[in-house]
Design brief:
Blueprint (H helix, E strand, L loop, with lengths): L3 H34 L1 H6 L1 H26 L9 H24 L20 H6 L3
Helix pairs in contact: 1-3, 1-4, 3-4
Length: 133
C-alpha cells in the first residue's frame, strides 16, 4: 500500500483522459449535428457554442478525475463506492448525450439504421431492343 498515492494519481489521470476523449467526441458530434441542422444559428454563435462545449467537456472530465482521486483515499475500502459511481457516470454520460442528441435531431436511437434506397427504375432497354419493326 506504499504506492497508493502514485496509483491514485495514475488512475485519476486515466479517468481525466478518458473523460476528455469520450466527452470530447460526443461534443464534436453534437457541434457537427448543430452545424448541419441549424446552420444560420450555428454560424452566428459558432464561437460561443465551441467555447461552451469545451468548458463542459473540461469540467466534466476534471470532475470525474478529481472524484476518482477522492474515492481512492482509503486503502482498506478499495474499490470505493464513490469511484465506482463516478466511473459508471462518466462512461454512461456520452451515451446518454448521444441518444438525446439523436432523438432531438429525429435520427432515432443510438445505432444508425440505413433506410433502404428507393431508386426510380429507368425504362428497360430490353423492351426497346426487342421491338424492331
Amino acid at each position: 500500500m506504499a504506492n497508493l498515492t502514485a496509483f491514485r494519481l495514475v488512475i485519476a489521470g486515466c479517468a481525466l483522459i478518458s473523460g476528455l476523449v469520450l466527452n470530447g467526441l460526443t461534443a464534436w458530434w453534437l457541434l457537427r449535428l448543430a452545424s448541419r441542422n441549424a446552420s444560420p444559428l450555428y454560424r452566428e454563435y459558432r464561437l460561443w457554442a465551441i467555447g461552451i462545449a469545451v468548458l463542459i467537456v473540461i469540467l466534466t472530465a476534471s470532475g470525474g478525475g478529481y472524484l476518482t482521486y477522492l474515492g481512492m483515499r482509503d486503502p482498506a475500502h478499495l474499490p470505493d463506492s464513490l469511484s465506482m459511481i463516478v466511473a459508471s457516470f462518466m462512461l454512461l454520460l456520452p451515451f446518454a448525450v448521444t441518444v438525446a442528441g439523436r432523438r432531438m435531431a429525429g435520427m432515432g436511437g443510438i445505432i444508425p439504421v440505413d433506410e433502404p434506397a428507393y431508386k426510380e427504375k429507368s425504362p428497360s432497354r430490353r423492351g426497346a431492343l426487342g421491338r424492331r419493326t
